[in-house]
Structures are given as structure tokens and as C-alpha cells.
Amino acid sequence: MHQLTLPALRADSALGFLAALGILELTTHTLDPATGLSWHGPAQPAILHTTHPLTHDQLAHHLQQQLPNDPENEPLPLAPGILSRTRPNRSSPNEPLRIPAHEAHHQLAHYTQTERDTAAPQARWFTALTNQCHTDEKNGHHYTTITPLFAPSGRMTLRQNWAKAAAHCTDDPHHLKAALTAWARVPDYAGASLDHHSHGPAHLHTDGQPAQHGVPGATWLALHAFAHFRLTGNGHHSNTTAWTTTPQGPTLTWPTWHPPLRTTAITTLLEHPLLHHPNPPHTHLTNLGITAIYTTHRTQLSKSQGPLQPAHRTWPPTASEPQAHTETPDRTEGKCRR
User: Fold this and answer.
1) Is there a domain that residue 291 lies in?
2) How far is Cα 275 from Cα 295, in angstroms, rounded to an integer?
3) How many angstroms separate the CA atoms of 220 and 224, rounded?
4) Where is the composition biased (Basic and acidic residues) (predicted)?
5) Alpha helices for 130-210 (secondary structure H)
6) CA-CA to 114 of 20 to 30 Å: which in 6, 206, 219, 248?
């Protein structure tokens, strides 16, 4: 196996971690089914393991080829038909992936049969974006919920977030290479609430106005990481891989690991109970290949949930609180909060 270090995708950043998983998802299904992912260590970059050698330019070019040709109508060509769903009527939820439970069960059965017949990944994607095991009520009907990794603001939908990130990457092909090597921030792009650096409050800008400076390349890749996070539940309560509710609020927990792992193994590791143990045995974690564990909490805005907070390392313990994550130097477009 050949190794390619991805210097901009660091383990101590939620967006960096998710973007690395997104690259693994894309390359596994479109380039090399034996692709693996590992990390240089705590707070260190990701390593992509492939059968054939790759350069950053070659990987960026391949990822560019996976961008949707028509993002407004089909934002996720890797699993067509899921994000291209439309809202059936005005009384239904604004998010088209929130659908009646019986319809979700029927749709999943269809996707599962298709996966058996053709190995298409629609069933995996459907269960990662739409939770058919948990519903809530709207206008007297019970609709499925969606992944909590996505925090919509206003009437924003998953489809719109995917399409907007893809459009930026199509307009400027450098965004995907920048996602691998040195992030490029874009004014007035908010991303998908996966990056606290993209939200700049007014007091941090010379004009006294709040501003957004998101990373479209890393965000588009990170959205593809959602396939690693399964949605389950018992009808009344929902569960998501690596996502829990803590006194600090909704929390994402993830490890870094040394041996290269493939997609299924990573989901298994993300669901391991030791990740959430208050005092995990050191040898038990190292036997799993884990080198560090991080958490981040979802912020709360006045009318919606906000971006994920800076990552905090929970294991191995440090003598003092770690400093906030510092990004890989940006190729900045416009003003940027650092």
C-alpha cells in the first residue's frame, strides 16, 4: 500500500476529521476499494493508503471528477435519488428527507434490494441521512428525522448544502486541492455548521459586521463522511454513531488510530463503547490502535443550532487544557477570522 499525507486534514479538527472520512468514502467507491485511512498521531494529519501511488494533484483531480454535473438536481451522484428528493407538498417538512415512516421503510427495502443486486450504496446513504427508526410529528403526521451532524439554519436543507459546496468547487477547481494541503476560505460561505472558524462575529471584523468565511472544498468532502454515521432508534429516542447528548449539549466524539482502516472498520470503531468511557483503560484503547480521542459540542444560536465548537482532547489526558485548534495556514480569499 502507498501512503499520501493530507496536511490540511488534522485530527484535532472536526471538519478535518470528517473531510478525511469523506475522501475515504469517495475513493473507496470510485477509485480503489482497498483504500484505508490512518493518522500520523494526535493533532496530526491524516494518511490515505491506496494500492497505487497518488500525489495531491492526482487525488484532487479525481475528487474533482466526482463533483455533480448538475448539483441543483442531483447533488449526490455517488448515491443518486436520495438528495434529489423533492418536497411533496406544502404541509410536509421543508427538508425532503423527512418523510412518513411507512414510506421510509418501503424506500429502504427498495434500496437494500438494489444494493444486493448491484452493490450500489443507496441503502447505506439512506440510513445515514434519514432515521426511519425515529419520527416526530408535524401537522398530525409522523415524519422521519435526519442526521444530527447537519444543523440547518432557517429553511436550509441537506440538498442545498451539498449543492452550494459543490458549486464553489466547480467554479474554482483549486478548492479541492486546497482542502488537502492548505484551506482556502471564501467570504459569505457558511458551510454546513461543521467549522467554528467559518462563523465570524461582528466584533472580530473591521467593518463591525458579522461575516462567514467557510471552506467549500473541505466542507464538500466532510458531507460525504456522513455515510459512516448510522442512524438508529426505538421510535421515541434516536441514536447516531459517535453522537451523544452530554451536559455540554449534543456532542461528537471521534478517535485517531494508527493502523489503516477501511470504511466499515471505522464505523465499528466510532461505535465502540470505550470512546465514551469516563476513564478508559489505556491498554484497551491502544490494543484497538487508538492514539487519541476528541470531542466537540454543538453551539446554540438564537434561532437555530450553530457550528461545532473547537475540538477538545479527552484521551490521553493532558496536564492542562489543550489550546484551541490552530488551522493549517490558509490561502485566504477576503477577510478571515483566524
Assistant:
1) yes
2) 10
3) 7
4) 327-338
5) 158-171, 174-181
6) 219
